[in-house]
Amino acid sequence: MIRDIVRWGDPRLRDPSEDVPSGYEGLASLIADLFETCHAAPGVGLAAPQIGVNLKVAVIDLSIGAEPASQLVLVNPRILEAGGEQKEEEGCLSIPDVVARVGRPARVRAGFRDAEWREREIEGTGLLARALCHEIDHLSGMLYVDRLRGLKRELTWRKIERSRARWEGLKA
Ligand code: NI
Asked: Are the C-beta atoms of residues 144 and 100 closer than 8 Å to each other?
């Protein structure tokens, strides 16, 4: 089911998410909803708090639905190792119409459980490394704007405030 995406300003984006307990019955439908909502948006990743569920689950699909094999389910993920640097443009489905160049590690290794509760690890560079960092940040209530510094950060917040006025106007 396609769910409403929670937008910036909603406290659920800032609440830290809880670990998914073993045997949690809602897991399969939560994962299905995340993929459906992410593909419909369209976006390359979505975290559970973005559909109002504060549990540590996120999905990444760099193919945006084109290749089933590239669908990545992250349950209770954590960054195990990060190295190098990259700085590329990032956006977020919860912050429409705004992008900014964000500094991220160039290489990331993450540990997580998959949809079948198997313990897994993944290593990513480039866009995958950024997506892993971005989605895992969501699970601790952190947004990409929090990773910006100085003037860049202030200007981006101002853009977000302007954009928010627009999207709230549309909703009314
Ligand atoms: Ni996001």
From this structure: yes
Task: Give alpha helix (H) positions in the chain.
Answer: 27-40, 126-138, 150-171
Asked whether residue 47 is domain-assigned, the answer is: yes
Distance of CA 47 from the midpoint of ligand 1 (Å): 7
Q: How far apart are CA 84 and CA 106, in angstroms?
A: 5
Q: How far is residue 31 CA from its own chain's centroid?
A: 13
The model's confidence at residue 171, banded by pLDDT at 50, 70 and 90, is low
For residue 150, the enclosing domain spans 11-171
Cα three-residue angle 22-27-29, rounded to 5 degrees: 165
Query: What are the Cα distances from residue 168, in Å, to 9, 149, 155?
Result: 10, 27, 20
**Ligand 1: centre distance to CA 119 (Å):** 24
**Would you give the distance in Å from CA 72 to the centre of its chain?**
12
Distance 133 CA to ligand 1 centre (A): 10
The answer to whether the predicted template modeling score (pTM) of the entire model surpasses 0.70 is yes
Total domains present in the chain: 1
Residue 67 is part of a domain; what is its CATH number? 3.90.45.10
On whether residue 75 sits in a domain, the answer given is yes
pLDDT digits (tens, 9 = 90+) for 63-110: 999 999 999 999 999 999 999 999 999 999 999 999 999 999 999 999
Active site residues: 135
